[in-house]
Amino acid sequence: MAVPRTGHATSVPVAPATSVRREILPVPPALAPLLPDHGLVKGTVVAYTGAGSLLAGLLAAVTGPGGHAAAVGLPRLGLLAAAEMGARLDRLAVVADAGHDPAEVAAVLLDGMELVVLGLGGAAVPPSRARVLAARARGKGATLLVTDGSWPAPDLRLESRVAGYTGLGTGSGRIRSISLDIEVRTGTGAPSRGRLAARPLGGRVEWIALADTTDITGAPETTERERSVAS
User: Which of 155, 191, 201, 217 has the most CB atoms lying inside 10 A of its own CB?
Assistant: First the structure.
Protein backbone atom coordinates (compact mmCIF):
# COMPACT_ATOMS: atom_id res chain seq x y z
CA MET A 1 0.00 0.00 0.00
CA ALA A 2 1.41 3.35 -1.01
CA VAL A 3 1.85 6.00 1.62
CA PRO A 4 0.02 9.15 0.54
CA ARG A 5 2.02 12.29 0.13
CA THR A 6 0.93 15.11 2.41
CA GLY A 7 3.02 17.87 0.91
CA HIS A 8 6.02 18.75 -1.12
CA ALA A 9 9.45 17.88 0.13
CA THR A 10 11.48 20.85 1.27
CA SER A 11 15.22 21.16 1.49
CA VAL A 12 16.74 21.91 4.86
CA PRO A 13 19.77 24.21 4.75
CA VAL A 14 22.88 22.71 6.30
CA ALA A 15 25.11 25.01 8.31
CA PRO A 16 28.70 25.10 7.07
CA ALA A 17 31.22 23.18 9.12
CA THR A 18 33.13 25.30 11.57
CA SER A 19 36.31 24.57 13.45
CA VAL A 20 36.14 23.91 17.15
CA ARG A 21 36.81 27.09 19.09
CA ARG A 22 40.02 26.86 21.08
CA GLU A 23 39.98 28.77 24.33
CA ILE A 24 43.17 30.71 24.84
CA LEU A 25 44.98 31.90 27.96
CA PRO A 26 46.58 35.32 27.64
CA VAL A 27 50.37 35.73 27.58
CA PRO A 28 52.54 38.85 27.60
CA PRO A 29 51.61 40.66 24.36
CA ALA A 30 55.21 40.64 23.14
CA LEU A 31 55.25 36.82 23.33
CA ALA A 32 51.89 36.26 21.61
CA PRO A 33 53.10 36.53 17.96
CA LEU A 34 55.57 33.68 18.54
CA LEU A 35 52.82 31.26 19.64
CA PRO A 36 50.65 29.39 17.11
CA ASP A 37 47.41 30.54 18.77
CA HIS A 38 48.78 33.84 20.14
CA GLY A 39 48.36 32.44 23.63
CA LEU A 40 48.39 29.18 25.61
CA VAL A 41 45.58 26.83 24.59
CA LYS A 42 43.43 25.67 27.48
CA GLY A 43 43.48 21.92 28.01
CA THR A 44 47.02 21.46 26.71
CA VAL A 45 50.45 20.70 28.18
CA VAL A 46 53.35 23.08 27.63
CA ALA A 47 56.96 22.06 28.38
CA TYR A 48 59.07 25.06 29.38
CA THR A 49 62.83 25.41 29.73
CA GLY A 50 64.63 28.59 30.71
CA ALA A 51 64.52 31.72 32.83
CA GLY A 52 62.11 32.08 35.70
CA SER A 53 61.40 35.67 34.68
CA LEU A 54 59.25 34.48 31.76
CA LEU A 55 57.33 32.16 34.08
CA ALA A 56 56.58 35.19 36.24
CA GLY A 57 55.38 37.00 33.13
CA LEU A 58 53.06 34.15 32.16
CA LEU A 59 51.55 34.02 35.65
CA ALA A 60 51.07 37.78 35.58
CA ALA A 61 49.36 37.62 32.19
CA VAL A 62 46.77 35.15 33.54
CA THR A 63 46.14 36.53 37.03
CA GLY A 64 46.40 40.22 36.19
CA PRO A 65 43.11 40.30 34.23
CA GLY A 66 41.39 38.21 36.94
CA GLY A 67 42.26 34.60 36.13
CA HIS A 68 43.49 31.99 38.62
CA ALA A 69 46.84 30.20 38.48
CA ALA A 70 48.99 27.95 40.65
CA ALA A 71 52.71 27.30 40.96
CA VAL A 72 53.79 23.91 42.33
CA GLY A 73 57.30 22.80 43.25
CA LEU A 74 58.99 26.11 42.38
CA PRO A 75 60.65 27.33 45.61
CA ARG A 76 62.68 29.97 43.71
CA LEU A 77 59.75 31.48 41.86
CA GLY A 78 60.07 35.28 41.93
CA LEU A 79 56.77 36.46 43.38
CA LEU A 80 58.05 40.04 43.58
CA ALA A 81 58.97 39.93 39.90
CA ALA A 82 55.52 38.53 39.06
CA ALA A 83 53.86 41.34 41.04
CA GLU A 84 55.99 43.94 39.25
CA MET A 85 54.74 42.47 35.97
CA GLY A 86 51.13 42.88 37.05
CA ALA A 87 50.34 39.57 38.74
CA ARG A 88 47.55 39.50 41.32
CA LEU A 89 49.01 37.43 44.12
CA ASP A 90 45.57 36.92 45.66
CA ARG A 91 44.74 34.87 42.55
CA LEU A 92 47.94 32.82 42.61
CA ALA A 93 48.22 29.64 44.69
CA VAL A 94 51.81 28.75 45.56
CA VAL A 95 52.89 25.32 46.81
CA ALA A 96 56.65 25.73 47.04
CA ASP A 97 57.26 22.37 48.77
CA ALA A 98 54.97 19.85 47.11
CA GLY A 99 56.48 16.80 48.82
CA HIS A 100 57.54 13.64 47.02
CA ASP A 101 54.83 13.83 44.33
CA PRO A 102 54.35 17.37 43.01
CA ALA A 103 52.51 16.02 39.96
CA GLU A 104 49.71 14.76 42.19
CA VAL A 105 49.39 18.18 43.81
CA ALA A 106 49.24 19.76 40.36
CA ALA A 107 46.55 17.29 39.29
CA VAL A 108 44.34 18.44 42.16
CA LEU A 109 44.93 22.12 41.37
CA LEU A 110 43.92 21.66 37.73
CA ASP A 111 40.37 21.67 39.05
CA GLY A 112 39.63 25.36 39.46
CA MET A 113 42.78 26.89 37.96
CA GLU A 114 43.30 28.16 34.44
CA LEU A 115 47.08 27.74 34.52
CA VAL A 116 49.13 25.36 36.68
CA VAL A 117 52.91 25.66 36.52
CA LEU A 118 54.58 22.47 37.74
CA GLY A 119 58.25 22.18 38.66
CA LEU A 120 59.34 18.56 38.23
CA GLY A 121 62.56 18.89 40.21
CA GLY A 122 64.59 17.25 37.46
CA ALA A 123 62.33 14.20 37.24
CA ALA A 124 61.18 12.47 34.07
CA VAL A 125 57.44 11.79 33.97
CA PRO A 126 56.58 8.32 32.57
CA PRO A 127 54.35 8.33 29.46
CA SER A 128 51.50 6.56 31.29
CA ARG A 129 51.45 9.19 34.05
CA ALA A 130 51.79 12.00 31.53
CA ARG A 131 48.74 10.76 29.63
CA VAL A 132 46.64 10.76 32.80
CA LEU A 133 47.65 14.30 33.73
CA ALA A 134 47.19 15.55 30.16
CA ALA A 135 43.70 14.04 30.07
CA ARG A 136 42.84 15.73 33.37
CA ALA A 137 44.06 19.10 32.08
CA ARG A 138 42.00 18.62 28.93
CA GLY A 139 38.91 17.63 30.90
CA LYS A 140 39.19 20.60 33.25
CA GLY A 141 40.01 23.07 30.50
CA ALA A 142 43.22 24.10 32.27
CA THR A 143 46.71 24.59 30.87
CA LEU A 144 49.49 22.60 32.51
CA LEU A 145 52.97 24.08 32.10
CA VAL A 146 55.79 21.77 33.20
CA THR A 147 59.36 22.85 33.79
CA ASP A 148 62.65 21.60 35.26
CA GLY A 149 62.18 18.03 34.08
CA SER A 150 61.23 15.78 31.17
CA TRP A 151 57.70 15.41 29.79
CA PRO A 152 56.95 13.10 26.83
CA ALA A 153 55.26 14.65 23.79
CA PRO A 154 53.90 17.96 25.11
CA ASP A 155 51.55 19.96 22.91
CA LEU A 156 54.02 22.85 22.80
CA ARG A 157 57.65 23.40 23.76
CA LEU A 158 58.70 26.85 24.94
CA GLU A 159 62.33 27.67 25.63
CA SER A 160 64.04 30.86 26.76
CA ARG A 161 67.70 31.74 27.14
CA VAL A 162 69.14 34.81 28.78
CA ALA A 163 70.67 36.95 26.02
CA GLY A 164 71.72 40.00 28.01
CA TYR A 165 70.82 42.62 30.57
CA THR A 166 71.34 46.25 31.41
CA GLY A 167 72.78 47.93 34.51
CA LEU A 168 71.58 48.02 38.07
CA GLY A 169 69.04 50.42 39.46
CA THR A 170 70.44 53.04 41.84
CA GLY A 171 70.60 51.57 45.32
CA SER A 172 68.36 48.62 44.46
CA GLY A 173 71.02 46.05 43.63
CA ARG A 174 68.79 44.62 40.91
CA ILE A 175 69.10 44.21 37.17
CA ARG A 176 67.00 46.88 35.46
CA SER A 177 66.17 44.90 32.33
CA ILE A 178 66.82 41.48 30.90
CA SER A 179 66.49 40.10 27.38
CA LEU A 180 65.61 36.52 26.45
CA ASP A 181 65.94 34.57 23.23
CA ILE A 182 62.70 32.63 22.77
CA GLU A 183 62.08 29.46 20.78
CA VAL A 184 58.65 27.85 20.31
CA ARG A 185 58.11 24.37 18.85
CA THR A 186 54.94 22.45 18.04
CA GLY A 187 55.25 18.92 16.67
CA THR A 188 57.90 18.54 14.02
CA GLY A 189 57.41 21.90 12.33
CA ALA A 190 59.97 24.65 12.11
CA PRO A 191 60.45 26.56 15.38
CA SER A 192 59.38 30.15 15.88
CA ARG A 193 62.06 32.41 17.34
CA GLY A 194 62.26 35.92 18.72
CA ARG A 195 63.83 38.09 21.38
CA LEU A 196 61.96 39.71 24.26
CA ALA A 197 63.03 42.09 26.98
CA ALA A 198 61.53 42.83 30.39
CA ARG A 199 61.97 46.52 31.20
CA PRO A 200 60.52 48.95 33.76
CA LEU A 201 57.91 51.12 32.04
CA GLY A 202 55.32 53.33 33.70
CA GLY A 203 55.83 52.03 37.20
CA ARG A 204 55.78 48.32 36.32
CA VAL A 205 57.81 45.78 34.37
CA GLU A 206 56.64 45.21 30.80
CA TRP A 207 57.70 42.68 28.17
CA ILE A 208 58.60 44.14 24.79
CA ALA A 209 59.73 42.57 21.52
CA LEU A 210 63.23 43.39 20.29
CA ALA A 211 63.88 43.58 16.57
CA ASP A 212 67.57 44.39 16.98
CA THR A 213 69.63 41.80 18.84
CA THR A 214 72.04 44.50 19.92
CA ASP A 215 69.38 46.37 21.92
CA ILE A 216 70.63 44.83 25.17
CA THR A 217 74.19 43.70 25.70
CA GLY A 218 75.65 41.69 28.53
CA ALA A 219 78.13 43.02 31.03
CA PRO A 220 81.31 41.01 31.60
CA GLU A 221 80.51 39.96 35.16
CA THR A 222 77.54 39.47 37.46
CA THR A 223 77.32 38.85 41.17
CA GLU A 224 75.55 35.86 42.64
CA ARG A 225 72.70 38.15 43.68
CA GLU A 226 72.37 39.48 40.15
CA ARG A 227 72.32 35.98 38.67
CA SER A 228 69.52 34.95 41.02
CA VAL A 229 67.44 37.95 39.94
CA ALA A 230 68.04 37.19 36.27
CA SER A 231 67.00 33.56 36.61
Answer: 155
